[in-house]
Design goal:
Elements: E1 11-13, E2 17-19, E3 21-24, H1 26-30, E4 51-52, H2 55-64, H3 69-75, E5 78-81, H4 82-92
Parallel strand pairs: 3-4
Antiparallel strand pairs: 1-2, 3-5
The structure holds zinc ion (2 copies).
The site of one zinc ion has 6 residues, from helix 4.
Length: about 100
Amino acid sequence: MGNPLNKSSMMECPTHGLRKPSFVCSHLQCGEGLGFHQPSEPHDPELPFQHAWCDEYDSILIEEGEWNDRSEGFAKIMVICEGCLDVIRKRNIRVNEKNAT
Ligand SMILES: [Zn+2]
Ligand SMILES: [Zn+2]
């Protein structure tokens, strides 16, 4: 643990095998129907990992205006594999939710 990520970082998932890591808030990891938000800006090419968070965290993010200690403390970001992220997305995304910004 504690190794800095680089763009070729991989992780071993017990379900999906060797995959890229991605980051979700802890609520999404065990919740369902919480909403699913991802960054609107393109990924940093040096850190091409997916991030996702729930509705509640999204409103904190809007309030705080940025990722900071408070928002990160709330989110309790977890590292999971991309395959697991896909499962979480399907479980949390709202049917009527459009990616309209
Ligand atoms: Zn959350
Ligand atoms: Zn997985």
